[in-house]
Every structure is written in C-alpha cells, then in structure tokens.
Amino acid sequence: MDTVLQNLGSIPCPHGDRCTESGCLFQHSWNKKPAASASAKHDGPDADDNPRKRRKLSTEPTQSTPPTTAEPSQPNPEPVTAKKPVSPPPLGRKPTVLSVQSSPSEAPATPATKPAAVSSPANPTPEKSAEKKVPIRKAQASRKVETLNPRMLKGVAPATFEFRFKALTMLHEQFVRLNKEMEKAAGKDAESKKLLLTPQELIWLSLDLEEKIAMDKPSIYNNVIKNRIMGYKKMTPKQWKAERLAEIKKEEERKAAATQASSKKQALLGPPKEINTSLTPQEEIAFLPHVLTSITELAQYGYVPKPPSEEEIKKAREGVEAAMGWETCDRCTKRFQVFPGRREEDGALTSGGPCTYHWGRLIYPERNPTSTVQQERTYRCCKQLAGDSTGCTSCSTHVFTVKSPARLATIVPFMETPENPSVPKDRAVCFDCEMCYTVNGLELVRLTAVNWPDGKELLDILIRPMGEILDLNSRFSGVWPEDLINAEPWKPVAPLDPVIDTDSSSKPPTTTTTTTTTTTTTNNNPPEPDQRKKMQIVPSLAVARDLLFSLISPTTPLIGHGLENDLNAMRICHPTLIDTVLLFPHKKALPYRHGLKMLMEWNLNKAIQVEPDADSAADGTTGQGGKLLGHDSAEDARAAGDLVRFKIQHTWARMKREGWTLKNGEFVPPKDSKGKKSGGEKLTKVRKTRDGTEEGELVEV
User: How many CB atoms lie within 10 A of CB 70?
Assistant: First the structure.
C-alpha cells in the first residue's frame, strides 16, 4: 500500500496547479524533484553507481556493477528518491563549483570538495574551488551557517516578517554589489583582497546589521533600515573599503581593551583613595558606637541575635531524621541523598552523580538608554545567556547548605560571647571566615582575625571539619588540599595582643605581609606549597571558637562583610556588630546586597580578590580550582575594616557640620537653644532605615 501511495507522486495532479489540497499525493509543478531524480536513473548507470563507488574507494570491486545496475530495473522508486537529495553531487561534474558561489541554503562546501580526491587531474574545477576557499576567515569558522532569513527576536518584532525579509534581502544585495565592485577594483592588491567577504560572511553581516537595528531602535525601525539601504546604494567601492577597515580596526581595539581591562583592573580604577578621618586610632575606636549595626530585627535574613531554644533544636533534629539524608544541591538545585559516614554498599558520600553548574552569578548587561528591548541576563563565569546550558563547570558530587539556625545547632550548638575581663576595652576586631562543603553542609575551614584599625594579624588558622569533605570550594575559600595536608598543629608562640602605634593618628592602616602570597601560576594546578603561607590547624570548630573568644568580649565590636554567614559558621551570637552589608545598604534593601569587591571598587578604588591569571580565566573555561588562588580571608577582613574607616570619615565630617565636638577623647553632641544637649547624655548610634529614619541619622539611645 505504501508503494502505491508513493507512486502517485509521479502522476500529474488532475487539478494541476489549481489544486488546493494541503496533503495532495499527486505531482505538481512545485514538487517535480522526485520525477527529475527518477528520470536521472534512466540516463545511465553512473548516476546511481557514483555514490556507491565513493563509499568503496578502498576496495573498488569490479563485480559491484551488476547488482547496482539491476536496482534501477525494479519498479519501486523509493530507494532512488530517498537517496538522491542526500547523496553528494556526482564525480567530475560542474555542480562542485556551488561550494564557492552557492547560497548558504544549499549544500555545504565540505561534501563538494571530497570528489576532488577521486576526479581526474584533467578536470580543474575542484582545484579552483579549493583555491577560492582560502579567503574564509578562521575567526568566523565556528559561527553557525545561516540563511538569508530574519532572526527571531526575544521581544516583539518591530515590523512584519514580510517587511523584514524584504529589507534584509535588499541590504544583502547591496553588500554583494559592493563586495564584487571592490573585488574588481582591487586587482592584484593583496591588502584589498583581505577585505573581501565570502557569501556566508555577507549573509552574517546583513543579519547582524538588521538584528541590531531591530533591537536598538524598534520604534523607528522602518525609517532606519530604509535609510541604511539607500546609503549603501549610493556608496562607492572606495567608501565601502574605508568602512570595512574602520570595522576591523574597531573590533581589534575592542578586543585589546577587553584584554587590558581584565589584566589591569587596578590601573582602570585609578589611584586608591586615601582615608583620612582626622582621628587617632583610639578616637576611631571610640567613634564605633555611632556606626554600629543592629541585627535584632533581621532574623529573617539569616542573622541569629540569640541561640535557638531546645524545643526548636529538637524539631530540627526530627526533621533531619525524617528527611533521610535527602537535600537540594546548592549549585544545580537537583535533589540528591547524603550518606554521612559513607554508604556501606560502595562507600559513596552522595548520590546523583556529578554536578554541572555555573559558578558565576547572573548579571544584566549595560543598558542602552535608547533601547526599549529588555536585556538578557548572562552568567558572569562563561558569558552564556541564562538557559542556554546547564553549566560550564563540573564537580564530582552535589553539595548543599544549611541555613536554619535550629538545624545548625543540632551539629554544634550556638554560644553567646562570654565575658572576658582580659580583653582591652579599646579593641575592635575584623574577622572573616572561609567555608567548605561537607556532609553536614557548609563548615568552617579557615578563620582570620585582624586588629582594627591598624590591620595587624591576631589569628589565622585552619579548622578541620567535622564531616567528610565534599568540596573545599577552593575557588572562593582559597583553601586547597595541600594546605590541609601541610598544615601544622596550632601552637601559641606569642601573645595574641598586637601593639598599637599611638602616634599614627593620620596614617592609614598598614597592611602586613601575613597574608597568603598571591604568586602567579602558569598551570591549571593549585599553587605550590612553598608559594603559600604555612598555616596552622586546630582539630575542631570548638577550639577555633575558644581562640576567638580569647580576643573579644561582648562589648568588642566585630567588623566584617556579611557577618551572618561567618557568625553562623562559628555558631556565635555577638551583640556588638558592624556589618558593611548593613553599613552600605543596597537601594532595594535586604536581601539584596553589594559585594565586598564592588564596595571597595566604588568607594576606595581598590581591587581585591584579583586572581593572578585573570586573563586566562576570564572566559570561565577553567574548571573548579583552575588557575585560581581563591579568596584571601585576611585581605577580606582588612577590606571590611577600610570600608568602616571610610564610613567614619564621612559620618564624622557630617557630625562636625551639625555641631558635634571632640573633647578629651569623647564625642559631645551639639546643644539646642535651651542649652541642653540635643543628643542626651548617652551615646548615639545609627539606626537602620527599616525604622523609618534616613541612613546615617542620629537618634537617641
């Protein structure tokens, strides 16, 4: 039955070209290709023998001709019609020239060049076609072959498809004309020949220009595209050559600027801004109560003002037992199961296989003020559009994060900062924590504490996690397996109290050389052990927390960026905090926030978290770890301290304009008209904008 229906395609339709049936089985004038292929088989055996001979060049059997010639005599034309459109052109025939001068909608040039190896030397056509392919640029070889068809736009099209297609065709015709005229005028000029475009490149140029006009200026698309077509109609070959040279030069400058921007970030930012608070270090510490950030009402954003109750911990423990180890991956959002202590069958720590993800965040490109089309978000790591791929980086296991304070307390309980009479009252500490992924979620792996405002190191240790490590997250934590292997047990070799230079009243805080050495590496491996700081390690989180408690008291200001993450990792509830996330709030308020790196660039023109080989890793092709050294917790802690000093500089300047004075190391508020202190006898502090006051407004305690 199928053979009978297929044979109807060779019979002319009774209605001819007036037939309106959408699925008519008869032959029409617009589908005579099967008839042509059927007639071609009667011209001779070569038409059908050529593809078979081409597939059997290695053997070339002489007895293969009889079975191939017997096939055309069969009444069923199905094999012929099925193979004709797919098979390459016959050997030694002129259609091979189409690989150079054909339109993109036709067969690619690759099959046409293969017969050149079989054809006789007397036929020069394949050799000429191979010579004409030389001008094709390698830089665009990876682009997808496209036809002269308007591209689909994400938003609403600025015009109908018919108008866009007609405009695109006219634009392409002018490009072809100018390219041919420039080829004639070039003669033997090698420089001009390099500017010639292939047919596919002319189509790409037409599509790119039409798409750019449609996206950038949709409201006046019709007028703009018409003017561009008229402009190219009046353009001479000399003007076309100048435009091509300008485009090539512009592209080279753009690539050079991008390379320079990624490798010389600090040079682009300009000289770092100097911080001059006009206060001594002791006076700066005394000023800190004016910039404290309260977290009593921020529990919904991850801050833990007080430890969870026993009842909350019990419910969280029951929930963990009921979940049976099932978690959601923090990177790819897939569900997987965790096996603390390893699974007995195969010793696996997690299920679900490897994890593929994007390590960079989604960002919006720079907005064009004249465009009404919504810009698409791209990943910072690989510059791919959102939804184009599942990820650019792969990890052997899935990972997860625990954010519930009650569940965190089931592993290690929270503790409030105990009283410590030995801690000086005029001390402030900047600290930063680095975490890694284990079977318990995110666990502390490095703790760094520096004195404020001079930046001298107080504590810098590694912590051995409680659970089995899934991923050290070295790209961000800066901790590599070699660091844990080569670390020595912690030993108190000197008092933790630094010596503060009281004479450096106007000097900015000095940066010590205790941070990790960021030596440039030229391979895809982590830095060599001798290039990194020799770290000390403590056996548990409880020991690291006790060491931090030996440096602070409940009244000691703790300074950092995103302190809810660090304090939760340490399981600490501290009442006196200065969080730069709250000190420099986002315009949309929490949970939106600015990154530490961005705040340093905006406010102080300083580049932090700069990788030594940023040029090679900018495209995101390197894997987890790659050529990166990771973040340095000491650098991040000092950066948070610099931002606090920058805030004090501007806050104190505003307070002096309002009448505040400094007498004997104390900040005295201005007096009102009745001679009373407007600020009261007690100290004042900055309230959050959530309370209805403006940022930096002073209210009475």
Answer: 10
pLDDT one-digit tens code per residue, 607-620:
887 765 433 443 33
Do the beta carbons of residue 273 and residue 624 sit within 8 Å?
no
DSSP helix/strand/coil, 589: coil
CA angle 429, 435, 439 (to 5 degrees): 145
User: Minimal CA–CA distance to 171: which of 218, 254, 240, 231?
Assistant: 231
pTM, two decimal places: 0.57
- Left (φ > 0), alpha (ψ -120 to 50) or beta: where does 439 sit? alpha
DSSP 27: B
Q: Are strands 441-452 and 457-463 parallel, antiparallel or unpaired?
A: antiparallel
Least Cα distance to 609 among 600, 618, 619 occurs for 600
Q: Is there a contact between 415 and 573 (Cβ–Cβ < 8 Å)?
A: yes
d(CA 538, CA 536): 7
CA triplet 62, 64, 67: central angle to 5 degrees?
145
Cβ neighbours around 313 below 10 Å, total: 19
Identify the CA nearest to 570 among candidates 423, 413, 428. Answer: 413
Taking only Cα atoms into account, the Rg of the chain, rounded to an integer number of angstroms, comes to 36
Q: What are phi and psi of 229, to 5 degrees?
A: -65, -45
What percent of the chain stands above pLDDT 70?
Answer: 67
| Residue 286 CB partners (closer than 8 Å, separation 6+) | 426, 665, 666, 667
Both tokens of 272, joined, read 């770092």
